[in-house]
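Figure-free illustration: sequence to structure, shown twice.
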Amino acid sequence: MSDHSILFIGLDTHKEFVEIAYIEEQRGAQPIHFSRISSAKITINKTRKTSTT
C-alpha cells in the first residue's frame, strides 16, 4: 500500500501579490490559506524554497 497523497495548490495571482492556498486529496477536506506574498520573483522563489522542507 502506498503512503502517497495528493495535495492541490491554488495560486491567485495579481499584479502586486499572490495568494497561495492548498487542499488535501481526501473528500470533505477544507482549503487552507497558506500565505499572501509579493509577486516579486525573489519572494516567490524564497517561498518555494522554504515550503519544500
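We now fold a second protein in the same way, so the two outputs can be compared directly.
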Amino acid sequence: MKVIMSGMSSSNGVVDPRVTSVLAKWQNSHSLKVTLEELRRLMMSKENMTLTQPPEGQCYSN
C-alpha cells in the first residue's frame, strides 16, 4: 500500500529514521508495536492529514 506523508520517500516508501524518535533513537528493546504506533501518530498529524493520498490499492514498485 502506498502512503504519502512527511519524512517518507515518495518513490520507495522508506521512512527517514530522523523523523521519528523511535527510529532515531533505536534500541533493541523497541517492539514492532511501538514502531507502528509512532508511524500511526505521524500519519494522524495535522500536517500529514491534509496530504492527498494515492488511489486505493496503489503500491510501491521494487
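Summary for the second example: The helical segments are 21-24, 32-43, 46-49.
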